[in-house]
Design the sequence.
C-alpha cells in the first residue's frame, strides 16, 4: 500500500485506510509496526512503451514463457 505523507503540526504522518483498520482490528491508540521505503514513481512514458512492446511481441514472449 502506498500512502502520502501528511503535515501534522510540525511533524508528518500517514493515514491507514478504514478497510485496513477493520481488517486488522486496529483502533486509534493502538501501536503498529511500520517499515519505511520511499515509493518509486514510474514515468508514464515507460509504462506506455512497455504496453506497446508487449502488444508487438506478445507471441514471442508467450513462446519464451513456455520454455
Sequence:
Amino acid at each position: 500500500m502506498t500512502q502520502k505523507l501528511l503535515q501534522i503540526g510540525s511533524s508528518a504522518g500517514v493515514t491507514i485506510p478504514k478497510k485496513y483498520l477493520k481488517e486488522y482490528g486496529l483502533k486509534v491508540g493502538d501501536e503498529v509496526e511500520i517499515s519505511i521505503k520511499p515509493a518509486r514513481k514510474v514515468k508514464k512514458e515507460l509504462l506506455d512503451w512497455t504496453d506497446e512492446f508487449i502488444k508487438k511481441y506478445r507471441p514471442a514472449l508467450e513462446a519464451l514463457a513456455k520454455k
Notes: Residues 54 and 61 are 8 Å apart (CA to CA).
